Amino acid sequence: xxxxxxxxxxxxxxxxxxxxxxxxxxxxxxxxxxxxxxxxxxxxxxxxxxxxxxxxxxxxxxxxxxxxxxxxxxxxxxxxxxxxxxxxxxxx
Length: 92
Fold this sequence. Notes:
Layout: H1 3-22, H2 30-36, H3 40-61, H4 67-86
């Protein structure tokens, strides 16, 4: 099973469970039915966004710990500066 198939299967499972709860097919308490289940997709979206922002921030924070990637990026920046300077553009 490919990664895409796994993600699609998991998404279908999660959406089926949510729909069953939302349509009162799976019984639960009135408080959960009225206050938790309607806002669950928004909560999941915000949580997923927070996770992605954390992963992005952690990648930026630990970027200097990857010397090969750091050196490669700095080399590309120098090449770009030389090319722009040869065209008469000041990049300092």
